[in-house]
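To fix ideas, we close by showing one paired sequence and structure record:
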Amino acid sequence: MFTQLTSLFFFSLLASMAVSSAIASSDQCNEESVVSNNNQNVLQKHVAFFDRNKDGVIYPWETFQGFRAIGCGIGLSTVAALFINMGLSGKTRPESSFNLKNHSSGKFPNLLFPIEVQHIAKSKHTSDSGVYDTEGRFVSSKFEEIFHKHSNSNANALTADELSGLMKAYRVPKDYKGWVASYTEWKILYILCKDKNGLLHKETVRAVFDGSLFEQMEQEIARKKDVASI
């Protein structure tokens, strides 16, 4: 996404990165979908970490604060905030409505570049893994497929080479924006979260998709700061 540049993510962010919370039928939900307890689907939860004041709208300064909270430097956090919000704002703002509270309408550009969490699935890029469906729900079979097909040296982790193979496998021909978005998301995730042996673990990847990793990272950063101040 990082023109979409990470839905970090990565939102992804990098990550990312929804139409109104769409809940699958009970059978589908049991088999394939995970929906959070507060009626957000997992893609919304993935990006909601960056909604620092929890008003449903993410502004660039909130994206910046979120990246700083998970340990990113000022430079990366600034660039990420600019690219993510500029890339995703228009995609997540409904064209048929105008919100007086948030001064938000998809028909008119908003120079504050707000991202509406409720509509984050509208920013979902192509050339992705399919772990999020078109409504922002988590598809467990697609997630398991990542490791079944690409984790050859370790059943529950990816090496740098395996990650590169994964990204190539999901590329749609001539979908250059999708390639860049996917590459950015996965590379940032790998750089931030690989272990000392260069492995990106399955539990870590899942935590990114459901948004819980960001909270874990923020808590760890805060804990280290507390220890350092003693």
